[in-house]
Amino acid sequence: MRLFVFGLGYVGRAFADALAERGWDVAASARGPERVAALRAEGIEAVDANDRAAMTQALTGVNAVLITSPPTAEGCPGLEAVIPALAAAQAFPDWIGYLSTTGVYGDFEGRWVFESSPLKAQSVEGARRVGAERDWRQVGRGMGLTVTTFRLPGIYGPGRSAFDRLRAGEGRRIVKPGQVFSRIHVDDIVSGLLASLDRPRAGGVYNLCDDAPAPPQDVMEHAAGLLGAPVPPDLPFNELGLSPATRRFYAENKRVSNALAKAELNWRPKYPTYREGLAAILKAGG
Questions:
Q1: What is the arithmetic mean of pLDDT over 171-192?
Q2: Mind listing the domains of the chain with CATH numbers?
Q3: Structure pTM?
Q4: Burial (CB count within 10 angstroms: exposed 0-12, middle 13-18, buried 19+), residue 286
Q5: What angle do CA 101, 104, 105 make, to 5 degrees?
Q6: CA–CA separation, 124 vs 99, rounded Å?
């Protein structure tokens, strides 16, 4: 069995490792010869995404494809690179997973959103994701490919959690009354992708998130308590000189439902709240 990952980042690497443990061969795209060489030095079969011949070879006989790279103003780079290579390789994978974001929903003033909720993306990045989701669905229908979309909220895990910000002296408790965010541990993303891989469904769309949307300041306070570190002081949202990116982030307030993934994929998050997730990261030395 063979997996190809377009964009071997934090989530892509975790998913690739999980399938390698199942005995799968794994190949991945990389940007430029230096990145290709670096991944190959780690024992990863890497190819330059701009090398069509190499991409065709890497996708020959592929069983599953994961697209993690974000879209640009020109669209999804994974779509532009992978689809021609699949056609040239005459490959017909059983599953293509596209990682999107819950940013496609925009702001719901703290209400619950579901996969059927209107897509009201407020940021340029969110709007591009809406377009990329649409493009992948259309290509999937047109070519008879089993494309599944996964909408992800804030991702955390080892090396990427509130602990790291606190240790770096960058922990902040930005307080905006009524604001909540959904989040998910990287291990739970991987288990959700594996559940979908075992039950492929063309055109499927799933929110993968934990069970407990929560104010971000609560997460930071809990993490500080676990570390035995001082809790960062409250920073009122309206009094801060926040960057435009941070303000855009806080402009969207919603609770994301994972009910559909639970019902259709029989998936359950191992870390249903940030409390279990942070405790596991700390126990593992993260």
A1: 96
A2: 2-155+183-211+255-271 (3.40.50.720)
A3: 0.96
A4: middle
A5: 115
A6: 17
